[in-house]
Amino acid sequence: MTVMESKDFSYFFSDETNARKPSPLKTCIHLFHDPNIVFLGGGLPMSKYFPWDNLQIESPLPPFPKGIGASPSGSKEDTCHVTVKKNETTKAGETNDIPLSRSLQYGFSQGQPEFLSFVREHTDKIHKMQYADWDVLATAGNTSAWESTLRVFCNRGDTILAERFSFSASLYAAEAQGVNVFPVPLDEHGLIPEKLEEILDNWNPEAAKPKFLYTIPTGQNPTGSSLSDDRKTQIYRIAQKHDFLIIEDEPYYFLQMDAYEQDKSRRVQKNFSTTEEFVASMAKSFISIDTEGRVVRLDSFSKVLGPGTRLGWIVGSKQILDAYKMLHEMTIQNPSGFSQSIVAGTLNRWGQEGFLDWLIGLRREYNEKRDAAIDALYEYLPRSSFININPPIAGMFFTVNIDASAHPEFATTYKSDPELVEQAIYEKVVSSGVLVVPGKWFKSEGETQPPQPASSKAVSDPNNIFFRGTYAAVPLDKLRDGVRRLGDALYEVFGVAK
Ligand SMILES: Cc1ncc(COP(=O)(O)O)c(C=O)c1O
């Protein structure tokens, strides 16, 4: 089968990207590592003056039989030992380790070869890429990769699309760059393709079309929803029809779980006898259905290894990744060298299979926490028709959806304004000793100039408010206690008898 090359999407680039010249110094930096070259060309400190001689790291050993939370004892049986030396004994890419003399040096703005090769193989294993010229680029996590995305594609005044409720840091980053984030309705299954198409079919021809859709397909932040494979295919077709890119921000992709089963006696956790079975169980990604380089995928180790690694990667066409790389040469240069040495040293010893074993273990843990959170919500929240719980199938978040008009003082004290009810509940909940956050904090409200038809922003449930909580951050006993406090607050606010 012939595998196609990606299409040229450079017409989406921002003025900044189009104006950027390659840094001439970066074009010769690779020669620093050529033993035949006496390198007098750049301001690189000698690694002799890096004070670290080696890094000694211990992590649990795949297949993690005691669970991923068990600390390694230090013995050979359950501990993966990594020693990363300072000095290079081989050429870049020849061993699995990134010596400190290289990782702590300038250069390799795409990422260190040993890190990139692991991530490339992982990406192809999971997403089975469908076009030839794709690649990966190391990032300092998705927050930074998103900021880069805005700069690579957007000018002030441009419009992008996003789920009507989306990760507030992403929205604020766009807003600060003068980018309008036009909201697309979503439901408990994520962004609604029919609504997206309707918005674009009726797009005001006087306004520039959106350059891309920013979406969090799995365990969406803040709604906890996950897009089905069918919806993704529909959305991809709409992107082709209306010609825009898709940016999938996927830090929660590997926190996919079994569907919630309320009846505990019928609960069986899915067991995977092979890692292939696990991979086959994963939701389709947008990048996996992309045949033309229209999708840019932002991946992060934050939720699967640790946020402080500040390490992630972007998957996309080489043409698009080049634009990111040239930007990074002027901004982050590259993610932390320590981080790349530690993560690549660990993952290359665990191997692809070992990393998948880790992710399977993580899935098990999150299943348990999600179940505990949803069990507690059903136990402690008022069983009233105006309160709706959506058990998530991925990610870290649950939401409690409330019909604000059910509040006894909706029309009087709160003048039929659902956001005033939302604020009042938030204050009550916090004073009851638990923090869940109001959905309105995540609302995208951008508008084009001239504006879109009013019908494009119409929502079917204007009085629906919601609160986002997480089961990720606390142990199970605290989780139950927090949910109990939330329940008590809601009983009181809505005057429901227990
Ligand atoms: C949708 C989304 N994107 C990005 C991030 C941040 O990711 P990172 O730690 O990789 O910057 C988060 C969460 O913190 C998130 O929910």
TrEMBL record:
It catalyses: an aromatic L-alpha-amino acid + 2-oxoglutarate = an aromatic oxo-acid + L-glutamate. Belongs to the class-I pyridoxal-phosphate-dependent aminotransferase family. Keywords: Aminotransferase, Cytoplasm, Pyridoxal phosphate, Transferase. GO terms for biological process: aromatic amino acid family catabolic process; lysine biosynthetic process via aminoadipic acid; tyrosine biosynthetic process. Its EC number is 2.6.1.57. Residues 103-444 form the Aminotransferase class I/classII large domain. InterPro entries: Aminotransferase_I/II_large, Class-I_PLP-dep_aminotransf, PyrdxlP-dep_Trfase, PyrdxlP-dep_Trfase_major. This is aromatic-amino-acid transaminase. One of its GO terms (cellular component) is cytoplasm. It is an enzyme of class 2 (transferase). Gene3D superfamilies: Type I PLP-dependent aspartate aminotransferase-like (Major domain). Its cofactor is pyridoxal 5'-phosphate. PANTHER family: AMINOTRANSFERASE, AROMATIC_AMINOADIPATE AMINOTRANSFERASE 1. It is found in: Cytoplasm. It holds the Pfam family Aminotran_1_2. GO terms for molecular function: 2-aminoadipate transaminase activity; aromatic-amino-acid transaminase activity; pyridoxal phosphate binding. CDD domains: AAT_like.
